[in-house]
């Protein structure tokens, strides 16, 4: 028995087996959107890697030209001149022990965390709280650095991170249903450029296997991966 409502099932008719071009797929997702709120537009990509092998882990970062339509809040763990730089760059919260105490008390009102390398030992005290939410600063993501001003500036401009899950799928948001079609298309193409550039050297065979585009509550629209070539 289906768990989906009538609107979803009606929208799904006729699109299950069709592969659309990127531009046609965006139009179709917007046409089939039926929620009363401004849904996100998400893309899921099955990639040709073995997620059980560490050398095939896929991760990267990208700054979308049109953002994704959300306000970003950034917490920076820094002291002295680095704290001053973070504040000037637009960080929402800057501190050290005081931020740790707030987090231990249940406060998590931020989307990204940045830390200077000398304070990662301190951040480790709340790693178990931040980890499940993907908020632990990471050298691989560039969020553990003394150049806090640049990282904060990039994040405020819309820099986003991506990685594969245990099923070799990458989940990413490219904007909102209310976005102009061309802006969504440019965001999508910019993301794929970064994704392909992040392909692990040890991954063999076809890299982009399947692409599905959807709105938050909407049906999945399959895109033609051959368009990338």
UniProtKB/TrEMBL annotation:
Keywords attached to this entry: Repressor, Ribonucleoprotein, Ribosomal protein, RNA-binding, rRNA-binding, Translation regulation, tRNA-binding
Annotated GO CC locations: large ribosomal subunit
Keyword rRNA-binding: yes
Gene Ontology biological process terms, A to Z: regulation of translation; translation
Keyword Ion transport: no
SUPFAM superfamilies named among the record's database cross-references: Ribosomal protein L1
CDD domains, sorted: Ribosomal_L1
GO terms for MF: rRNA binding; structural constituent of ribosome; tRNA binding
Similarity comment: Belongs to the universal ribosomal protein uL1 family.
Quaternary data: Part of the 50S ribosomal subunit.
Function recorded in the entry: Binds directly to 23S rRNA. The L1 stalk is quite mobile in the ribosome, and is involved in E site tRNA release. Protein L1 is also a translational repressor protein, it controls the translation of the L11 operon by binding to its mRNA.
UniProt name for this protein: Large ribosomal subunit protein uL1
Organism from which the protein derives: Candidatus Babela massiliensis
The encoding gene: rplA
